[in-house]
Amino acid sequence: MSTQVLGPNELVLDVSNELPFEEPASLAASVHLPDRQAEPPRAVLICWPGGSYARAYWDMRISGHPGYSFAEHMTAQGFLVLAVDHLGVGASSRPADGDRVNFETMSAAAASLVTQVRSMLAEGAEEFGGRPLQSVPISGVGHSLGACLTVVTQARHRCYDTVALLGFTHGHKEVSVTAVGATEREDIENDEVLRETAIEQARAFFAETWNDIYGFAPREPNHA
Description:
By secondary structure, the chain is of the alpha/beta class. It has two domains: about 5-165, Alpha/Beta hydrolase fold, catalytic domain (Rossmann fold, 3-Layer(aba) Sandwich), CATH 3.40.50; about 175-220, no CATH class. Helices cover about 30% and strands about 15% of the residues. The chain has helices at about 70-75, 105-125, 145-155, 175-180, 190-205, and strands at about 5, 10-15, 25-30, 45-50, 80-85, 140, 160-165. It has a seven-stranded mixed beta sheet with strand order 1-2-3-5-4-6-7, sandwiched between helices. Strand 6, helix 3 and strand 7 (about 160-165) form a beta-alpha-beta unit. Helix 2 (about 105-125) crosses helix 3 (about 145-155). The model has no long low-confidence stretch (mean pLDDT about 85).
């Protein structure tokens, strides 16, 4: 296990051993300690953002909207919040072979991080308050893509004590179904057509960065 502390609340964990890539790989996270540090945290929440977002999603500070930060709210309730960038996202590693950054490798990386965090808690790592926390439960928390990844990670690796799934599209999006002229799922006879429609929608979502290995979705179309 390799650990690198970037700052008072920033952590990078090496997950290379669980991945098939030739180059080293790591996941970046932000550690938000509970306000009441005299008591053990109620749980450790390992939080994964939705598609096109990075870990800052969990600690949004928006002018005119006090109390908007999930991390701020949950640490005030006695939880330890660990917000993580997915493999290929934000400050986490971006393997050269982007096509292999899929749910299999992303979930393996996530499970490796959880295993390391559990060990660090038991050892009383300074990053998590500096005292042993063997009995504190670890919950996987995910929104949208993050929720889907949490399901896959738990199904494949059983690394969490509990999970909190804050919603994700687990089937065909209605706009894809409508685009191919079907009103009910049973009416869809050509999954390949539906898949191509979904790809075209994704292509439009990522705009000019579609052909990049790691694209950035423009935010303006989502402002509404």
